[in-house]
Amino acid sequence: MSDRDVVGQLSDLELIVAAARQAGEIALGYFRQSPEVWWKNEGRSPVSAADFAANEKLAAILRPARPDYGWLSEETDDDAERLSHETLFVVDPIDGTRGFLSGLELWCVSVAVVTDGRPTAGVLYAPALKELFVATADGPALKNGEPIAVSARPDHDTCRLATAEDMLNGFDGDFRKTIERVKHVPSLALRLAMVADGRLEGTIVKRNSHDWDLAAADLILERAGGALVDLSGHPLTYNRADVSHGELCGSPVARLPEFLRQLAHRRDS
């Protein structure tokens, strides 16, 4: 990658960090204040006034700053025009809206820059937790300015795993005995960040997550020594016509082969 590309990434990172911070502070103003709520996806998913306000702030900052970039946000009607862009912003104004509305602190603003299908800069800002995760494709993953790395626990040690109980069906008995399931984390992006900073050894993601849930966290996990892959072990591609994904696994690179072996029955079913 050329020096110019690296400078471009840093510039993008500075931009998205500033935007995420401002959007996060707006969302924080609605936190535990009973914002107005609507339901989407045939009544399955809540969206609040806080989501819309944070989305408006992100769009107001990012889109004029990079008019040649495409745009994909959970709270903006999708437009196939984004597919014509080599680079675009991928945005979730509040990842973990259900937790946000329940008064839980585990939510964040997620912003990524994606080029040719892969993230090149990413930020997760969790203002209620005072946590800021950032990464670029050629730099370290940082949490509040300090480098982070995935867990180095040996395979035979306890494995802290964030997943639904039914996702463990079919695991070998001996392997399952090593698993310590953690309390539900409503923000998928933060769950992946918890793998990146070593609080978890892995997470298994149910199908139908979306680009905006994943792109920034994917890059942060990768730069911390981990990987987010499908059950065949392939990295994800973003900015496709279909922005939803199948079942996924995120873990330290060293642990992926064992996780994927345990999940083979789901891949082949």
TrEMBL record:
Stored CDD domains: CysQ (cd01638)
Database matches in Pfam families: Inositol_P
Enzyme Commission number: 3.1.3.7
Keywords: Hydrolase, Magnesium, Metal-binding
Record Gene3D superfamilies: 3.40.190.80, Fructose-1,6-Bisphosphatase, subunit A, domain 1
Repeat among keywords: no
Domain of life (superkingdom): Bacteria
GO MF terms, alphabetically ordered: 3'(2'),5'-bisphosphate nucleotidase activity
PROSITE patterns recorded: IMP_1, IMP_2
Enzyme class, UniProt record, top EC level: hydrolase
Family: Belongs to the inositol monophosphatase superfamily.
Protein name stated in the entry: 3'(2'),5'-bisphosphate nucleotidase CysQ
Organism: Rhizobium calliandrae
